[in-house]
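Exam prep: given the inputs below (a chain plus zinc ion), describe the expected output before reading on.
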Amino acid sequence: MKRFFSPSLRQRLAPHARQRSRVYCGLLVAGSLLVAGLGEVAPQPFRKAATATPDAQIARAGEPWQIASFPVEGFQAYTSAFGYRGSSFHYGLDIASPSGSYIRNWWEGRVVEVSDDSACGTSVIIESGDWTHVYCHMQGYVTYEGGTRVFVDSGGGLRLAEGQGVATGDRIGRVGMTGRTTGPHLHWGMRYQGNWVDPALVLQAMADGQRRAALPQ
Ligand SMILES: [Zn+2]
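Solution:
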């Protein structure tokens, strides 16, 4: 798994890449291939972590991944992987960054939920087609405005309402310590068609796409 954890990903992935609509369908196709490549994506209730991913299948996922955004600024380390952690299962990838680092939206989509009353802390859930991406332990809080739930982080100049659209690479929060956490980090969770996916596999596919795009045509 070590190869998934490359700090230089942050530099290699362009957060503001565009051409999204053209490749959107491509992402969904790529997602299908990626998930197919996982072999065993545990349906709920969750059984075990997806482990081996044939490189050839990931490679077939193709170009669209390169425009996705790495989810946080100020990367320091991957501190907890997706999978079993003792007797419990960790449904995401923990990425340590200094407190206050901006979190970036992985892929264009819509805010489907904001909350601040669970172990996830102040959190945002975004839906992009068949994908759902979850961001936990952020700074700020959730309030109501005219019956709509709104996430507010005054210090970061951020405000996100449920139902709102967000672009790839948009700043959607800041790393904090809300919820159950012992240090500032982003807990990043991903689901494809309702099944949890290891975000490290997605990052790997993004890096592969970036590498291919950099090759001379
Ligand atoms: Zn976590």
